[in-house]
Specification:
By secondary structure, the chain is of the alpha+beta class. It has 18 helices and 13 strands.
């Protein structure tokens, strides 16, 4: 059966017939040669099934994938700019096999195959692991905001949308009435019976009304999902261009964004887990990331560190259940107690082995009542002469009391764990494991999504994370003294 894909130009496969091979002008250790070795291993069978034997031969999916991955690695994200580079840049010409896909081909492939980029990311993790670049000894987690393909100027509040909907409905009704009156008058004069034709104004307004209704419906669905049973606040906003994007705070400003989550291995800063979130904070993202790590690597890390954004009893419990040694920051430190402060549970130390609290004055509070609410108290009258008495719960009864629950106990246990010097030393490594990776992504030029919609943006984020892993694999090979030998080992590994 013939293959439904374009063949490489004859000058690409028979270069020796030329007086000079143009690719000899590239350095023998140029990145593009290593990328070619890596990207040839990507499995595109699932995408190939989409193509038909009928019609003009298409570019092979592996070729388009290679062009996109290499382009992103060079900081080129626009499909039009990628097309230009494939015509002018030798390294791009090599990766594209001297083919030059139209920018629409590149753009459509990226939009239509967003799920495939998740598989590309998994492939990047697998290759890195096969080369010994992943240890899973210590994984750092973090999240960062990336701009959606929209802006505040393409958005409206719920009240504004409803007002526009009512206004357009009234204008359409008025246009229909005028059109009907005009047709009736012309029929009486000309007797041609041509009937009613739809004015251009009416077509435009009906199209706008359809768009407004769709956006309004999306906002109502989102609010019902996030705040079931509650009346929608008239100030709630949604973007016309990307209805899935959420308003988030980024660098002091509020913009339409998505929250990119990554888990980075400490050995070579390989991203071993990633996903995109519509949540502005990170509290609900840790479980998902742990699942992603296991899915991509087949195992779980020994240690995970995360900043205070992930601080929740559910997240800590999830790590314990997975038997992962977790280090989650509990805050930026407590300030010294003054006479104007009120002593609360955050000022008390907790001993999880003895199940006791210790107040700032060193007095022990023992468990007096367990259940849904847990009550800890000091012995009777022990707080009588304490200097903190007037700003403590012992103010009236001479007995300090703490009312808490199981979730607060889990947080208190993590707080005590993070006070240890050994924990501080482990947690301090998080900054040099995961935070530089977001810096590498953003200084590489990616700060805003090209695709719209949560799922498609998620696919593009997978592509971005895969590209960063491939860049690290390429750099590792180039750092070796015998690059050609390392390329041979790479080919054996993949």
């Amino acid at each position: 059966m013939p293959v439904p894909f374009k063949k490489d130009p004859i000058e690409f496969n028979q270069r020796k017939l030329m007086a000079e091979d143009v690719f000899d002008l590239l350095d023998k250790d140029d990145d593009c040669f290593i990328y070619e070795d890596i990207l040839n291993s990507i499995d595109t069978k699932e995408i190939e099934k989409k193509f038909s034997m009928i019609g003009q031969h298409a570019y092979h999916p592996r070729l388009i994938t290679a062009i996109l991955i290499y382009s992103y690695s060079q900081g080129v994200f626009s499909s039009r700019k990628i097309e230009k580079r494939c015509k002018k840049d030798l390294s791009f010409m090599y990766i594209s096999h001297r083919n030059c896909p139209n920018f629409r081909v590149l753009s459509d492939f990226r939009k239509d195959n967003w799920q495939f980029f998740v598989e590309c990311f998994k492939a990047s993790v697998k290759i890195a692991a096969s080369l010994g670049m992943v240890s899973l000894g210590h994984v750092g987690m973090d999240g960062s905001k990336f701009g959606a393909n929209t802006s505040k100027h393409k958005a409206a509040s719920y009240s504004h949308i409803k007002a526009n909907e009512d206004k357009l409905k009234h204008e359409i009704e008025e246009l229909l009435r005028k059109a009907e009156d005009t047709d009736s008058a012309e029929d009486k004069i000309y007797h041609n019976g041509t009937g009613y034709s739809i004015p251009d104004d009416l077509k435009i307004k009906e199209k706008r009304l359809e768009k407004i209704k769709k956006v309004k419906e999306e906002l109502e669905k989102r609010e019902q999902r996030e705040n079931p049973g509650k009346k929608i606040d008239s100030k709630k906003q949604i973007s016309y261009a990307d209805t899935d994007a959420k308003m988030m705070k980024s660098k002091g400003n509020f913009e339409y964004c998505y929250n990119g989550q990554i888990s980075v291995d400490s050995k070579n800063q390989i991203i071993v887990g990633q996903h995109l979130s519509q949540n502005a904070n990170d509290k609900n993202e840790l479980k998902k990331e742990v699942s992603e790590i296991e899915k991509n690597t087949g195992s779980l890390p020994e240690k995970i560190s995360a900043d205070s954004g992930y601080r929740s009893s559910d997240n800590i419990l999830a790590l314990e259940n997975a038997k992962i040694d977790g280090y989650i920051a509990t805050g930026k430190g407590e300030k010294d107690i003054t006479d104007t402060d009120k002593i609360g549970i955050k000022n008390f130390s907790y001993d999880d082995k003895k199940d006791i609290f210790i107040c700032p004055a060193g007095v022990v509070l023992k468990l007096k009542l367990s259940g849904e609410t847990r009550v800890y108290k000091t012995e009777e009258m022990v707080c009588g002469g304490c200097s903190f008495k007037n700003i403590c719960s012992a103010k009236k009864s001479n007995t300090a009391t703490i009312y808490t629950d199981d979730k607060a106990i889990i947080l208190a246990t993590m707080k005590e764990k993070m006070k240890k010097d050994s924990s501080k030393e482990i947690y301090a490594k998080r900054k040099i494991i995961v935070e530089p990776v977001f810096g590498q992504i953003k200084t590489g030029g990616f700060r805003r999504f090209s695709l719209r919609g949560f799922e498609k943006a998620g696919g593009e984020f997978s592509l971005v994370c895969a590209v960063l892993n491939f860049k690290k694999i390429v750099n590792m090979i180039k750092d070796k003294t015998d690059c050609s030998k390392e390329r041979e080992l790479l080919l054996q590994a993949i």
